[in-house]
TrEMBL record:
Enzyme Commission (EC) number: 2.5.1.-
Keywords on record: Transferase
Top-rank taxon: Bacteria
One Pfam family of this chain: SQS_PSY
Name of this chain's protein: Phytoene/squalene synthase family protein
Example GO molecular function: transferase activity
Top enzyme category: transferase
Tagged with keyword Cell inner membrane: no
Amino acid sequence: MTHTPPPDAALNWCREVTRVHSHTFYRGSLLYPAGQREAVWAVYAACRAGDDIVDGLPPEQAAPELARWWAQVQAAFAGEEGESDMQRALAWAVARYPVPLPAFAELHAGFQMDLRGAHYRTLDDLLVYCRRVAGVVGFMIAPIGGYRGGDSTLAAALSLGQAMQLTNILRDVGEDLRRGRLYLPAELLNEYGVDVEGLRAGRVTPEYRALLRHLCGLARDGYAHGQTGIPQLAGRARFGVAVASRLYAAILDELAGGDYDNLNRRAVVPGRRKAWLTVQELGRQGTALDLCPINWASRQVVRLRDALP
């Protein structure tokens, strides 16, 4: 098989989608080698395109657009390049790496949950949603970089993706409320005595802080399990995933440092701390870096530095 890069326009579109919509994921992707890096962007951009449909359009318009998105994803897996940048790039990526179509099918099911405006009664309901819209992304990315350990490594990747999505939800409660969405499970709100109208009014109560501490603890447990699979990832991919994991988990630290006020402010990890966490991973992932030339590691530090806001 001849491996050729996707058209420049498709590649540039995927890179920009990734860079604009997830600074943390983008920084992690920069640590993959050429070829793998572009495939990671292609997968992320395809996922993001579906998410933008669900988030950006009224349900009556989003439903047919989501159906068109799903048709393009299936066509890409069938080797059809199509007309869109998303489909061309994804078709290239899945021809080169064994990205599983069933993972995209679960993602599609998660987007449909959003279209139905589902409110989550239990924590298990929320975790199903987190699995579908983010956990399965680990199934998509792991084959690109390569991995050992079989199902146990994929289970760790799933936990990591779910933890990242739960982190996003905890970071964005205020923003989601202003868009008419609430992902926090009703049973937990009742258990902790949290009033939804109070949340809409921006009131951060002791009860609400206790609930967030509980959910942050669950997210941290997910990161801990997810990190057990990182040593099973191949070469530079190990470093990229490790960095993304550390940077996402740092959002929880910022949330706690802001006294759990996610109703009136957004927890953001400062650029300098992101750089420091990345340097720490340079030391922690020594085995992965031993597989790479020293000048490669130096280039990644420069690349990350230049990407900082």
